Each structure stands twice: as structure tokens, then as C-alpha cells.
Amino acid sequence: MDDIAITFNFVSKKYGLKRGWSFANIGNEIRRLGQQLVLRDTAPREYFWALKDVSFEIRRGETVGLIGANGAGKSTLLKILSRITSPSSGRFEVKGRLGALIEVGAGFHPELTGRENVYLNGAIMGMRKDEIDSKFNRIIDFSEIGQFLDTPTKHYSSGMEVRLGFAVAAHVDPDVLLVDEVLAVGDAAFQAKCLNKLAELKSQDRTIVLVSHNLANIVQHCDRVLWIDHGTLRASGDPDDVVEEYLRTVSTLPMAIHKGKSALNGGKKESSRIISVCIKNARGETTDLVEYGAETTIEIEYCSDDSELDPVVCVTFQDVQGYNLGGLTSRFGGLKLEARGTSGTARLILSPVLFTRGVYSVSVSLLDSQLQKFLDVFPAACYLVVEGPSAATGQISGHVIFPHRWEIVDGCSLSSAHTCNRVLIETM
What we know:
Blueprint: E1 4-16, H1 26-37, E2 47-59, E3 63-67, H2 74-81, E4 89-94, E5 98-101, H3 114-124, H4 129-143, H5 158-170, E6 176-179, H6 188-203, E7 207-211, H7 215-221, E8 224-229, E9 232-237, H8 239-249, E10 257-258, E11 272-280, E12 289-291, E13 296-304, E14 312-318, E15 324-329, E16 344-350, E17 358-367, E18 374-387, E19 404-410, E20 413-420
Parallel strand pairs: 3-7, 3-8, 5-6, 6-7, 12-18
Antiparallel strand pairs: 1-2, 1-4, 8-9, 10-11, 11-13, 13-16, 14-15, 14-17, 17-18, 19-20
């Protein structure tokens, strides 16, 4: 059909897992190669399926977001679309001129200057020299690297390469534009400029495929979302619905309580160690499901026999991608752990929970009094599954809703237009 810009029909991509040389015994390696080349001894190879029977269609003028965990197959899909790699099976079709920015520095030669790489990269994307000449000043103005235009790109930072690469790709006047997570490398001002450019291309009925872990951008700019999970298409549809489903199920099965070996001591009976960690709701029930705005307790059972150690408990939170969202120590809260007995329990009370909807891992560690030496570490000891406002609505951004209120100042009068979450933050 004429209105279909991209077609993926049962596309699969597999990679052979290569084994390195065994330098401990090179004779064995020579014999192994001899068996393969001379005796044609074809031992079974191991394969990794980056994509497996993926099918979808994208209409002309549609902006489609690709979401999924790291290693799910998103970048492989873009590389197939941009013809950097070929599928192992299946077929695909892209109609019209293609612009792609899927890797930092892709299409750049490090020994060439920025000026020379503009012409090289533009030619790779199908632009004629006279076309690049006419757009050259706009490309450079957009990239903001004019001062370094005649410097070899091997001296560029990753952010400078991204700016120049996106500037070229966006000015190809592509019918289809592919953009990978590399936008996250640029600063906030340049990201805003790129998103405005995407909105401009969208208004011109161009087809855009956007890969991003920033789900707020996905919801705000995309007409449809494809969720790639372990090389397969798990869901496709409305951005709000697919992102909501992704947030609910992107993590492994959460644990409300953790008892086991620490990452540091391997379960050895050290004088100071963490025994268990659990999550409790406002009713004191052990659970991993908590509500935004409600009270939640993280309960840490520890053991410290050294009365002079003065240990400190640290609790940190990570999102589903493993990025650190911050944390707290018992020292900051003014809590002094008892170290005279065989065990004790420290409670971190979140009152209220301010995380947006999603899954968050809770890591717990025990430190010395100087906060320099780790006595024990439980990474991802528990998970918080938060029910509440979602970043998928586009009305909020990120993982934390800050205590706030909105006000409108009209002349000399001050009126409160909207008040939300006016909470008292107390140091426990």
C-alpha cells in the first residue's frame, strides 16, 4: 500500500557466539582449526537470536517509539532498517529517503574534520554535493560546533559527535528518520532542540522511529509504541497503554523480603552484617506492592557485635534500567544503630512514597562510621512495585513527584490555582 512506509515481515537476526583463542595451549587451537578447515569437522555452533520473527507495519507520517530493556533487540532492528546489517530470515522494506542516527559517530571518519565529515555523512545518506552545499550553514548552526568545524572528529567529545550527526540526519529531508538513544548524550538544551526538530518533521508528514528510555518523550511524541522483549514483539499499540504495561512487567518477579548471601561477604558470619530486608505497608503487612502517597517502611535486620564500630545503614533506589535514583543513610536521619547486642532492626519510613508508577529496586548496605568502608552489601535486596500516577500520561516526568503546589500571581493578588501533595518532609 502507498501509505505504508516501513514493512517488517517475520524478520529474524541471529549471531554466532564466537569463542576466543585458548592461549594456554595454542597446540589445541591449531588442531581445532585443522579439524574445521581440513577435516571439515563442523561442531555445532551456539547462536544468539537478537530478533525472532518480528512483524509490523508503520504508516507514512507515523511517529513510532521503540521501547524495551537493554539488549532486547531495538538497536538491531534499527540497523536492519538502515541496512547496516542484513536479516537472517524474513524480509523488510523502507520506502523513501532514509536518515539515521543510531550510533555515536556512525558514518564519521575520525581523521577527517567536522566539515569533511558533513560531506561524507551526507553522501552516505544519499545527498548530492550541491544539496549539502545549500544546507551546510544550517547544519553547522544546528550542531553548534562551528568553532571546531575544521578539527578532526577524533578530538570531538561524544556529545559533539551526536550534535553533528543529528544535524546532518535531520537536514537530509528524510522520508524516514531513525533515531536511537544517542540523543541522551547531548545536553538538555540540545535535546530540546532535537525534539523540536522531530516535531517539525512530524508536522511535515515524515515517518519517525524513535528509540528512547525516556518514556515521557515516547508518550509525548509518538503515535504508537512497539515493545521489543528478548528479540520478539511483545506489544504494539497506544503509547499510554503499552508504556503502562511495560512499566508493570519490565522487572523480574519482585521480592518483598530478602534473606540470603550478601554480595560482599558471601554469607560469612562477619561481626557486622545485614541479616534480612523487607518491605511493609502502612498496615504493617509484608508486601512489595505500595501506593503513591501512602506510608511504606523498609525494615533492615542487622547484626553488629563490635561496640566501637558505630555502623551506618544506607538504602539506595534504582529504576528498572539500574540507574541510581538516590538514597539515604541512617546517619543523615540522626539514627544511631545499637552495636552492643547480637542483632537489631533499623526502619526507613517513607512517609509518603513519592515515586511514580513502576518497579524500583532497593539496595541496602552497612558502612563504617566514616562512610568509607562497606561492611556488607545487599544489591537489589527488595523491589518496590508502586501504584500511582504514571509518567505515561505526559503530565509528569521522571520517577519522583516532588512535593509542590502551583500558584498564579495576578496583579497584586495571589491566588492558589492548584495545590497538590502538600506534605511535610520530616527527617526520621
